[in-house]
Amino acid sequence: MKMENLAVNTIKKEIFIEHEREGTYFTLPFSMPAETESITLTYRYTSHIEEEKKIDAGRFVAKPQASIIDLGLIAPDGRQVGASGSNKTEIYISETYATPGYKACALVPGEWQIIIGAYKIAAAGVEVTYEITFTKKSRRLFKGDLHIHTCASDGIFTAEELMERAQKLGLDFIAITDHNQMISADELPKVRGFNVIQGMEYTHFLGHSNFLGVDKPYEVPFIANTFDEVSARFHSADERGALIVINHPFQEPCEFKFDMMELPFHCLEIWNGPMRESNLKAIELWQRLLTEGKRIPISGGSDFHRDDIPFLFMGGPTTCVYAMSNSSQDILTALREGHAFISYAPKGPAIQITAGDAIMGDQVEWTKEQKLQIDADNLVKGDILQIITATEKKTLLEAQCDGSCHVSYRMQAPGFARVEIARVLIAGLPWLPVLISNPIYFV
Fold it and tell me: Which of 348, 382, 402 is the last residue of a domain?
């Protein structure tokens, strides 16, 4: 379900630099297309020339350096994105990672400038060729863990160690959510193809919440002794663009005792760590809110601290997001829009639900002919796939063996429809969810 063939486009820019421009800087413009996920820029020129010289014993071919061209990049707002002298002939930039010497940043559409440093130019001048490859954003599946602690609070691993572990598990992103510890994106480790999302777990005696995606959700210390003081921190985080998640609402002794409906929030963490009674209660709460007409997307996370807690592991559960890229903005936007499901592990069941062009989290007009299309993968023998609405819980499939499936469901009336996959994980235990999807809404 993860599309790997991304659309790419390469342009070529050529410039001839006369010797007279030696010792000067100038720029070469290019246009950044909208919805660009990454760029790779290469450049080439003849840096050395050959000069054959006769010597008493024969001949000597000298290859003196005739031209040296420095490289840099300027964004449309005039900000320097990076510079690398002449020692790099290729650079890569995306929102999550950039070649050392350059800054990972959003590739905003508009006119960008290649910095040309004519440090040394051959007497006859030099031709320089730049090639820029644009990779376009495309909606695809990314897997991550949205609730992880480092040694900055009560975990034992550094962010770098956690990132390495997550990569080995096949995750595409994690969120660092230390207790009452703000962190900026610049402090987080970066590696190509992976993203560490900045966050914090706002931790109060009466409830915990994740504030994701901003450096500083609020200006004042975290301490709060009244609901109004707590509310002020939530509203500040919301106004600054944080994705706010109500965490483990029934997990003792950290249950959420505030009236969540009196606070701004965007997601409900219905699945924290291994599936257990507190999570089942959170799922029941979410189902009730959906039935009441509230559209609240779901979130899940391992709450990983260390290795010695039974049944708790990074990626357990895994939040699986259909996003335009694995940048923080795109991941959090997709979560906010409900384009996600939760699976019990990185290699657990995966699902795609559509109704026409609508996907999980979307709204579509209901008609009597409208069907929900469901594609599920990584099923094991005995798995039960159920469709859940405000009035019905219907089994659509019981897997006869390991495999994948395509099933459909006709909506009988306007409302919502979501999917759960249940499994007996250990003999003697009851059926438990191993996948929970966000709904599609029919109006």
Answer: 348
pTM > 0.85: yes
- Stretch (H or E) spanning 285: helix 277-291
The two structure tokens encoding residue 259:
């009236």
- Tokens 């650079």: give the residue: 91
Q: Which of 322, 348, 374 is the last residue of a domain?
A: 348
Q: Retrieve residue 90's tokens.
A: 């290729």
What is d(CA 315, CA 365) in angstroms, rounded to the nearest whole number? Answer: 35
Domain assignment of residue 92, given as a range: 8-136
The CA distances from residue 104 to 8, 352, 428, in Å, are: 19, 31, 50
Residues 75 and 12 in one domain: yes
Provide the pairing of β-strand 440-442 with 363-364. Answer: parallel
265 in Cβ contact with 209 (< 8 Å): yes
Q: What is the pLDDT of residues 115-161, one digit of tens each?
A: 999 999 999 999 999 999 999 999 999 999 999 999 999 999 999 99
How many independent structural domains does the chain possess?
A: 3
Question: What is the four-CA torsion angle of 382, 387, 392, 396, rounded to 10 degrees?
Answer: -50
Nearest to 318 by CA among 361, 348, 279: 348
Interatomic CA distance for residues 286 and 269, integer angstroms: 9
Of the pLDDT bands very low, low, confident and very high (cuts 50, 70, 90), residue 2 is very low
Question: Do 172 and 143 touch, CB atoms closer than 8 A?
Answer: yes
CA–CA separation, 241 and 226 (whole Å): 24
Strand partners, 271: 300
DSSP 3-state assignment of 106? coil
Torsion of CA 353, 359, 360, 364, to 10 degrees: -110
Please report, for the domain that includes residue 210, its CATH number: 3.20.20.140
pLDDT in tens, 348-393: 999 999 999 999 999 999 998 889 999 999 999 999 999 999 999 9
C-alpha torsion 296→300→301→302, nearest 10:
140
CATH number at residue 366: 2.60.40
Cross-strand pairs, 352: 375
Q: Which residues contact 43 (CB under 8 A, 6 or more apart)?
A: 69, 71, 89, 128, 129, 130, 131
Query: Considering the domain boundaries, does residue 3 fall inside one?
Result: no
- d(CA 169, CA 158) in angstroms, rounded, equals 17
Element (H, E) at 115: strand 110-120
What distance, in Å, lies between the first and last C-alpha atoms of the chain?
28
